[in-house]
């Protein structure tokens, strides 16, 4: 099938030709002939990356009356990024058409300018629900003559709580001739909306809903909870040309991992709900320009992001929902390019992973977490390739060659190469020297999980304790339970929270109303600390600090040596690395 065969305007075909679209995608092939009628309600179950923007954009441009200078079509979508993306694509499609204008209206930008744009006589308005309602209430937009309403990523809009807004918009478009709804999934709420506001919609499903894109290679690495961060680093280090998005479940994780990786020299920034629109734009701009190699984001913050050329999506943790997994992985493998979606799972998450694998109906590949040696080798060859392919044709290097020749007269080529390698790789070699195997292998699991059960809490703690005290044997003897009158308390605050030892001491004493004399040694790491305290005062301190907030973060404190209930395992993944 070709675009000509679908019956769209020749000027649109000229534009799609220029964009390199050779054949229509499945959703375009099925949606465009129906939508060109302009009167048929339509439901397209298609994910991002399937070409759905053109599936509604091309027919909209075809049926719009360019001579009538008022809004005739309304596209509603969940985020500002998606809004801008849709407008950008429509602008490209209408390159050879005259008299049609399209405008984006979304929150976080000047409403005054948007009102001015609307007054210019636009035919297509692309909007986020909140800003649109704002404009309706200010009477800055007139929906009286809207004939076509497109709801894009309807499931995401409902997830984000826009159901009432969408219903309001549908109720306030009195001459609507057709409604086109696109969604990756079909939850009951969307069924309800479609039953209420749509008439005999034609429903088209592209492939299987939730079937992952064929261009994506789904891989997973099995490690323990406390090695998640280290595994993430290995994966990044093992892929020198990576341009990727890392997903976390919480804002806090996104922020903390980003800060930690930044400190360790990675090009990364975080995108989460606490950023202002300006900060968000800055981060997105840098990521799009590839000034940032990595973006770490929560699902909500990453909604609607469409960046070309993403090589890897990394799930720092598996999401609970298969749909979320599909959305995340859909950021890569777009527009016919290959992509990799990596999930870091720990033994206890395998059941969740199996479920995603089953529903997603894709082949998932188990990968070995690269060893330190693998990483170094990979980095080494990547660097040497870069060195060999460096373009030296444009510099004025000739001027310096005699000087260089003189300087290096007594150094062999081999030695020069060694020096270059040392300069580049010392960091890696040192870091990965004696690095441990992070894989959890079947054999290990059967030891830890007799009869296929999950690792018991006590056992896990035991292992964690070994990890904590490993290499600090003196401390272990000193703090051994019952060995002195002191308890050792764990707390998830550290130097990263802006504390120095003295200010930290002051803080815990102020909070607990205890005297300095009850304290023993304080051992501070960047994320966690251990406080030695007289046994009789330990509970008072725990009661005073555990569960309280510090800079918006919940403090967790427990007796490190007596298997207290809170916190330990959660923080293990954030333990500082060796030598930090
Ligand atoms: P979408 O699902 O609308 O986000 O589209 C995903 C990507 O596919 C966009 O970058 C489009 O430019 C591209 N695209 C859309 N339709 C086609 C097509 N028929 N052939 C090649 N690329 C396409």
Protein described:
With 580 residues, the protein is an alpha/beta fold. It has 4 domains: 4-205, 3-Layer(aba) Sandwich (Rossmann fold), CATH 3.40.50.300; 216-369, 3-Layer(aba) Sandwich (Rossmann fold), CATH 3.40.50; 373-431, no CATH class; 473-562, Alpha-Beta Plaits, CATH 3.30.70.330. The chain has a 7-stranded parallel beta sheet, sandwiched between helices. A 7-stranded parallel beta sheet has the order 10-11-9-12-13-8-14, sandwiched between helices. β3, α5 (111-119) and β4 (124-127) form a beta-alpha-beta unit. The longest helix is centred in the C-terminal third of the chain and has 20 residues, at 413-432. It starts with 9 loop residues before the first helix and ends in an 8-residue tail after the last helix. Adenosine monophosphate (AMP) is lined by residues 21, 24-25, 28, 48-54, 306, 334-335.
The CATH level-2 architecture of the largest domain is identified as 3-Layer(aba) Sandwich
Number of strands: 20
Considering DSSP H and I runs of 4 or more, what fraction of the residues is helical?
A: 40-55%
**Content-based structural category:** alpha/beta
Average pLDDT, all residues: 82
Can you identify the CATH superfamily of the largest domain? P-loop containing nucleotide triphosphate hydrolases
How much β-strand is present in the residues? 15-25%
| Distinct ligand kinds | adenosine monophosphate
Determine and state the CATH class of the largest domain. Alpha Beta
What distance lies between the first and last C-alpha atoms, to the nearest angstrom?
59 Å
Output the number of helix runs: 23
Q: What is the strand arrangement across the widest sheet?
A: 3-4-2-5-6-1-7
Low-confidence stretches: 208-212, 444-483, 563-580
Largest pleated sheet: 7 strands, parallel
Number of separate structural domains: 4
Whole-number radius of gyration?
A: 29 Å
- The gross shape turns out to be globular
CATH topology of the largest domain: Rossmann fold
